[in-house]
Every structure is written in structure tokens, then in C-alpha cells.
Amino acid sequence: MKELRKEKKVTLIEMSKILKIPRSTLSRYENGDSEPKQKTWEELANYFDVPVAYLMGVSNQKIDDQKALEIAKNIYKRYLTDERLDEKQKKAVRYFNNENLDEVLKSGMRQYFAIPAVKENIDWQDLENNGFLNTWLDGYLENRYLKEVKTNQNLITNTYYSIPDCDEIDTYSNIDNEVQIPIDDSFLKMISSEIPQKLTDEIHQLKSDDTTLLISNYENAVSEELQKEINNILDEAREKISILKEKYPDNPNEIKQITALITNSRSGKYEVWSRVGEVEENDEINISEPLKEMFIQIGSEILEYKNNDFKETYK
Fold this sequence. Notes:
Blueprint (H helix, E strand, L loop, with lengths): L1 H7 L3 H8 L3 H9 L6 H11 L3 H5 L8 H16 L6 H9 L5 H13 L2 H4 L2 H5 L4 H18 L3 H11 L3 H5 L8 E4 L2 H7 L8 H9 L3 E4 L8 H24 L10 E7 L5 E7 L2 E5 L5 H26 L1
Antiparallel strand pairs: 1-2, 3-4, 4-5
Helix pairs in contact: 6-8, 6-11, 7-11, 12-16
């Protein structure tokens, strides 16, 4: 509360007059010596134009959901006519241009406010400067499109980026215990008794050059040759997967249903009946066509319910 008051450039006395709350009470609120009632929380939140949860310190979202949504929608509308976006980005943006757009953007904004860098940057929190959000939201929509929409190109892209990069392989043997020590006056004071006279000039030159000492451990048992060989294999895999983009363009979207029964017969052998779309792939179980159709219909209804439930959860 004190930070918000300072941002607003008002004193406790001025706040007291406006809100008709004693200055001493406001002071106790600021210092955590007293807890406002719900109605008072709401009055204070309205005064500072922030959500109650932010004022209470239980949320990092400095503006309310509706205002955040409106800002996100304005950015989204600009995306629709932005010629700088490549075809892949445009496809992702157009995909969400439907009745579910608000829920998609609300979900995105909740993720945005949870980003550590946003928590530490006041401008990014209040969206006065939404340059970072403008870039981030485009990436969010593209990543969500890649996960949600099953296409040849998305499968290729997701597979390509799931391959570990070279740095991950190269640093596998590193132990995460790195220490960074600036070569500054404090460091020189700490080691002054250990510096031979002939090294003094060199050490002071390093200090002048704003040098940092980095130290850590690594596991020497991991073979560098193995790391190189794995990287060569992964580079080759990336190259081959990239070529598939030309070979397998996207087909028209067509969601089909898979229905299957698996029985464990008395002999201990598993038997399967399965139908993929209209094609019967396995027919080892002796059941009638009407029973098959019944299971297909039941499955269709269950999937419809589950898909709707999934959409609600994603909100």
C-alpha cells in the first residue's frame, strides 16, 4: 500500500481526507499492524485502481481481469492486420478468432502476470508500456496453436523443437554449483595477504577491467567424444525433420473417432476389436454390428462431454 501511495504521490493526510479514514489507521494498514475489513479493502483498491488481491499481496496482477482482457484484445486486433507476421504466425492468430477468444486471452494474461520478469517490472505489470506484452502474446498464441491443433506441420515443428540443443548436451557434465565473484575492492581485501607482490599489478588491472571470477565443478567421467557424437546425431535428425516440411503439407482438418474393445479371454490371450473412423482395423472379438455401433455412439457422447469439460478447465 505504501508503494502505491508513493506512486500516486499522495500523503497519508491527503488519503485520510479523501477516503475519510483516520491517518493513524492508514498508517497501521501500511505497516501491517492492522488488517482492513473487506469493504475497506475494496475502497482502497478502487482508490489506487488496482485489484483487491494485488493490494493484499496475494496476486501480482496489478490491473483487473477485464482491463487486462481489453488491452489483450486490442493487441490481438492489431495482429489480424499486421503484415510483419509470417504465415505461421498469421495462421495461429486467425485460428483463435472465434467465440472462445476471450477465454483464450484471459488464460494468456494469467500466464503473463505469472512471469517472474513481469513480477519485477512495474511498467509490464500495469501495461502502461505494453511492448513486452505485444511480443509475448504473439508467442503465447503460436505455442498454444502448436499444442492444440493437430496438423502435419505442427507435428514436425513440435518434434523439431523437442530435440535437445547442442548446449544442453555440451553442458550435461556441468554441476550446477557455479559461483561468480567480482574482482573488486572487497575481493582484493579478502585475498590481500595471499597475493604475491609480483602479481599485484596484474590483479589491479583485472579489477580495472571489471573482471568476474567464475568457478564450478564438472563430472569428468562423461566422455566429450560421446557428447560430440550425440550432437552429430541430433543435428542430422534436425536436418531430416526440416526436410519433411516440404514433403508433408497440412491436410484439411478432419477429426475422426477411435473406438476399441480389449478382452482377456479365458485362454489368457488378449483379443481386440477396433474401428478408426469408418475403417475396421481389428475384429478378433465376435460381437454383432449393432453392438459395435452402440459402443461407437456411447464413445462419441463421452468424448463430446470430455472435450467440453477440457475446454472449461483450460479457461
